[in-house]
Specification:
Strand content: 5-15%
Order of helices and strands: HHHHHEEEEEEEEHHEEHHHHH
CATH architecture of the largest domain: Up-down Bundle
Radius of gyration: 23 Å
Cofactor: FAD
Structural class: alpha+beta
Number of helices: 12
Number of domains: 3
CATH topology of the largest domain: Butyryl-CoA Dehydrogenase, subunit A, domain 3
CATH superfamily of the largest domain: Butyryl-CoA Dehydrogenase, subunit A, domain 3
Number of strands: 10
Domain Acyl-CoA dehydrogenase/oxidase N-terminal: 23-131
Family: Belongs to the acyl-CoA dehydrogenase family.
Bound molecules: flavin-adenine dinucleotide
Helix content: 40-55%
Strand order of the largest sheet: 1-4-5-8
Keywords: FAD, Flavoprotein, Oxidoreductase
Shape: globular
GO molecular function: acyl-CoA dehydrogenase activity; flavin adenine dinucleotide binding
CATH class of the largest domain: Mainly Alpha
C-alpha cells in the first residue's frame, strides 16, 4: 500500500493538542511558583513542620512580593487580575512543598472585603492584594460542622455595635490574622423559613498576633496541617461595628451595572462562585500533595536497594508508580477543566463537588501508597512522605467532607422522593 492509495486506513498519530488553557504567561507563572515552592518553601517546611511551626513572615513576604495574595483580585483594585485557574495552578505548586502556604492564599484574594461602603471595600481589596489583609474564617462550631445551618453563635445589636457570644471551633490562622470573618446567628428562623435564615457573616478587625477584648482560645493539637495554628475560640461579648456585615452577594450586586432581577442573579452567582472556587482550590492542593508523594517515591525507589537491586526494578513497585502518576494526571486535568469553566462564568456547582471529592480521595490513596513504597522509612519523621500523608488525610474532611460532596452531587442528579 502506498501513501497515495485511497484505501489506506493507517494514519499517523495526530500531533498533541495543547489544552485550550495553555498560554506562555501561565507557563511562566507555573515555573515561577515551582521554583519558589521548591527553593524557598520546601526547606522551611522540612525544618518547621516537625516542630509544628508557623509559616514565617519571610515566606509571606515572598508571596506578597509576587502578588499572589491578590492573584484573583481585579487589576484595577491592585491585584494580578488573574483567574481561578492561575490561583489553583500556583496553589498546586505551593502545596507540593507545604500545604499551609497554599491555604494562606485562600485567606486573602479579596476575602473579608465585601462591606457595604464602596470606598472602604476598595481600600480593603488593595490591602488584600498586597498581603496586608490576611484573614481567618470562623464558620464551624463544636456542634455545627457539616450542618452549618446549626450555627448557634449569637450576634445582638447594641446601639451601633454587634455583641457576639458563642463558641467557634477549627478557626485556622485566627490569632495571626488581620481579621476574622465570623458566621453568626442574628435571629432564629421564622415559621416556614430555611434553617439558615438569620445567619450573617461579620467582619471582626483585629491586630495580627493578638485577640481583641472578649475573644480567647487555644490552638487545637492537630495531626498535621502545620504552618497554621487552628483555634478553638470563645466569643464572650466581642463588639463589632454595625456596618461590618460581609455580604458577597450584595457587593457583587452593587458592582453590577445591571438593575433588578439580573443584578440579584449576579449576586447569587458570586456567592456560588466563592464556594466552588474553594472546592477546586482544595482539589489543586490535594494534587500538589499527591505529586509530592510521587516525586519522593520515585527518588526513594532508585536510592533503596534490596535483593541486590534498587527496589525500583521490582515490577510491582513500578506499576504502583504508574498508577499513582495516572491518577494524579487525571485529577489535575479535572481541576483545571473546572477552574477554566469557573473562569468562563459557567455554572459548575456539581463539577466543583465532584473534583473536590475525586482529587482529595485520590490524594489519600496516593500518599498512602507512597508510604508503603518507602517501607519502614516512610513511617518515620525522617522522611517527608509522612507529612504529605498527614496533610492529604485532612483534604477529605475540611471544606466539606467527601460524604457532603456526594450529597451535593447526588441531589443534583437524583430527585428525592416525597417520602425522603
Ligand atoms: C484541621 C482543620 C482545619 C479546619 N479549618 C477550618 C476553618 O478555618 N474554618 C472553619 O470554619 N472550619 C474549619 N474546619 C472545620 C471543617 O470544615 C469541619 O471539620 C468539616 O466541615 C466537618 O465537620 P465536623 O468536623 O463537625 O464533622 P461532622 O459534621 O460531625 O461529620 C462527622 C461525619 O459524619 C458525616 N456526615 C455528617 N453529616 C452527614 C450527612 N448529612 N450525610 C452523610 N454523612 C454525614 C461526615 O461526612 C463525617 O464523616 C477545619 C477542620 C479541620 C479538621
Amino acid at each position: 500500500m502506498t501513501s497515495t492509495d485511497s484505501t489506506e486506513t493507517w494514519q499517523a498519530e495526530p500531533p498533541v493538542l495543547l489544552p485550550p488553557w495553555h498560554t506562555p504567561e501561565r507557563e511562566k507563572l507555573q515555573e515561577q511558583a515551582r521554583r519558589f515552592a521548591m527553593d524557598e518553601v520546601l526547606p522551611v517546611a522540612n525544618e518547621l513542620d516537625p516542630q509544628k511551626g508557623e509559616i514565617p513572615a519571610s515566606l509571606l513576604a515572598g508571596m506578597a512580593e509576587r502578588g499572589w495574595f491578590g492573584l484573583t483580585v481585579p487589576a484595577e483594585q491592585g491585584g494580578l487580575g488573574l483567574g481561578v485557574f492561575e490561583y489553583c495552578m500556583v496553589s498546586e505548586e505551593l502545596a507540593r512543598a507545604w500545604m499551609s502556604t497554599a491555604s494562606i492564599l485562600a485567606r486573602s484574594q479579596g476575602l473579608g472585603t465585601a462591606v457595604a461602603d464602596a470606598d472602604r471595600r476598595h481600600e480593603l481589596l488593595g490591602r488584600s492584594a498586597r498581603g496586608e489583609w490576611i484573614g481567618a474564617i470562623a464558620l464551624s462550631e463544636p456542634d455545627a460542622g457539616s450542618d452549618l445551618a446549626g450555627v448557634q453563635t449569637r450576634a445582638v445589636l447594641d446601639g451601633d455595635e454587634w455583641v457576639v457570644t458563642g463558641h467557634k471551633r477549627w478557626c485556622g490562622n485566627a490569632k495571626a490574622a488581620d481579621f476574622i470573618q465570623v458566621l453568626v446567628r442574628e435571629r432564629d428562623p421564622e415559621e416556614g423559613e430555611s434553617r439558615s435564615a438569620g445567619l450573617v457573616n461579620l467582619l471582626l478587625e483585629k491586630e495580627r498576633g493578638a485577640f481583641p477584648p472578649g475573644l480567647s482560645g487555644y490552638p487545637i493539637d492537630k495531626v498535621g496541617y502545620h504552618g497554621f495554628l487552628t483555634w478553638d475560640l470563645e466569643f464572650d461579648g466581642v463588639r463589632i461595628p454595625r456596618e461590618n456585615v460581609i455580604d458577597e452577594a450584595r457587593a457583587a450586586r452593587e458592582e453590577s451595572a445591571e438593575e433588578g432581577e439580573a443584578a440579584k442573579q449576579a449576586g447569587f452567582a458570586e456567592a456560588q462562585k466563592f464556594l466552588n472556587t474553594a472546592r477546586v482550590h482544595t482539589a489543586a492542593r490535594a494534587v500538589g500533595l499527591a505529586r509530592a508523594a510521587l516525586e519522593d517515591s520515585i527518588h526513594y525507589l532508585q536510592e533503596r536497594e534490596q535483593f541486590g537491586h534498587p527496589i525500583g526494578d521490582f515490577q510491582a513497585l513500578r506499576f504502583a508508580v504508574a498508577e499513582m502518576a495516572a491518577q494524579i494526571e487525571q485529577a489535575r486535568a479535572f481541576y483545571r477543566q473546572v477552574a477554566h469553566l469557573l473562569d468562563l462564568g459557567l455554572p459548575v456547582h456539581k463539577e466543583a463537588s465532584m473534583v473536590k471529592l475525586e482529587a482529595t480521595e485520590m490524594s489519600v490513596r496516593v500518599t498512602n501508597q507512597a508510604m508503603q513504597l518507602h517501607g519502614g522509612n516512610g513511617y518515620t519523621t525522617e522522611r517527608q512522605v509522612e507529612r504529605h500523608w498527614r496533610d492529604a488525610r485532612l483534604t477529605t474532611i475540611f471544606e466539606g467532607t467527601s460524604e457532603i460532596q456526594k450529597r451535593i452531587i447526588s441531589d443534583r442528579l437524583l430527585p428525592r422522593s416525597p417520602l425522603s
